[in-house]
Amino acid sequence: AEAGSIYSSRWEQLAPYIAEYVGTFVLTLTFLYNYTLTGDVYWARMSNAFMVAAIVFASKHISGANLNPSVSIALCLAGRLRPRVCGFLCLAQVLGASSAAFLRHQAGINHDMVLGPDAHHHWAQVGLIEVLYSSMLCFTYLNCVASKQNNPTNDQNGFGGLVYGLCFVAGGYAAKGIANTVMNSAIAVGLGIADANGLGITSTGIGYFVYDVIGALVGVGAYRVVRPQEFPKDKESVLDRADSAHEESSQLAAEFIGTYYVVLTQVMCKMSTDTGTDLGPQALGTGAAIMSMSYALRSVSGAHFNPAVTLAVRAIGRGSGQAGGELQERRAIFYSIAQVLGGIAAASTAALIHPSRESGGPDQLISDSTPGQIMVAEVAFTFFLCYAILTTSGTSALGSTRSKQNNIAGFVYGSCIISSTFAVGNISGSLLNPASVVGFIGLGLMNQHASLLPYIFYQVLGAVLAGAAFLVTHAQLHIKDANDADSTAF
């Protein structure tokens, strides 16, 4: 043991595994109480997410707060955990989840578990959505916690726990009406044991476990695509390579993946909404997806995920986020193409999960809105969305002298989506994104309108106005840029 330590070296070595055991135990117990017939179905997803975030913030400095064999496996495959340590962490997590399940049974709490597909859905749909959002969880964890660029040792970010919890919000509300998502292979074991009343593990628990492990593999693959410099092929240090500029292909992949999850969540939440006044799932789910992906990918591509945002960034002639540099016309065009393709892919995936979805109730209030009301809603809120992103991501004024981390940009992006959806979701649908418009058109959502194509014009107009407003309110930045250019010209 080190001098002055109050623990022996053996206990210090066991501390991470104890933290993983306790954290997964509490987390599984939360899921067990929420996923019963007596639980509050609507807010159970938020309960799970906030508990996840709290435990991650509380134990991240001890063990890294994996709390999930899928995350530990992803870290191992990404070269951030030794296989032996990964194995012990997974064991501690599964034991924690199993202990929670047995405790629930011994306490005489035998409420039926609500697991598996809901009515009119089947296991293939549940498996697809579980794999997708488990991969999202592992992908964002790797980007926010394991990445040496996004979370350097000497200047760590403060959003790892927030992103971890937000993934459960996005996945939970996207799967509303299909099944309860688990997104944690240890909890899958605990739920399976509880579902069997402590007498073994059901096939349902095994199924969720397999889906979540597959999700880890997909998440690692996506992480490798957007951050190839984190996987050095030679003996050169990852830290030495972490500051190298991202290849354009990685940036385009980041925009595609980020837009895919944002639009998928938005579309899935919309398709699972039962009434036109129930905007909570779409607002909270989409906002959570945007926050998660923004924090994960901002240092790769700037995290636009929206052609309107890309247009606004290009209009002001500055970069957005830590990807750095001015956004040239060519790259802006490729960004927009990647975003639209991500929206199309997301809509296609949603069609697989909801193959027999019939349009109706959720769109009725929107169909009662006049074209003028829709135009004002889309222009005004796209304007504010783009302006807020420009002011929090396109400037360096927010950075303190002690840290280069921007811990608020992702929160601002998601907050704009949440507030806009609640404000005008029943007027225009609060799409605010041409990539989303393309996805909604492909699925026939909101088809009471003659066409959704005017939405794209409204959103482009809002983006241009946001760029103009930024140039007026931040003129000093452009004066500084011009002076810097003059000083380097000689």
Automatic annotation (TrEMBL):
Membrane topology recorded in Swiss-Prot or TrEMBL: Multi-pass membrane protein
Coiled-coil region(s): none
Database matches in Pfam families: MIP
PROSITE patterns, alphabetized: MIP
Subcellular location: Membrane
Recorded GO MF terms: channel activity
Transmembrane portions of the chain: 14-35, 85-103, 123-146, 158-175, 206-226, 332-353, 373-390, 411-432, 452-472
InterPro entries: Aquaporin-like, Aquaporin_transptr, MIP, MIP_CS
Keywords, alphabetical: Membrane, Transmembrane, Transmembrane helix, Transport
Keyword Protein transport in record: no
Gene Ontology cellular component annotations, sorted alphabetically: membrane
Highest taxon listed in the record's lineage: Eukaryota
Similarity field: Belongs to the MIP/aquaporin (TC 1.A.8) family.
Protein name from the UniProt record: Aquaporin
Organism: Polarella glacialis (Dinoflagellate)
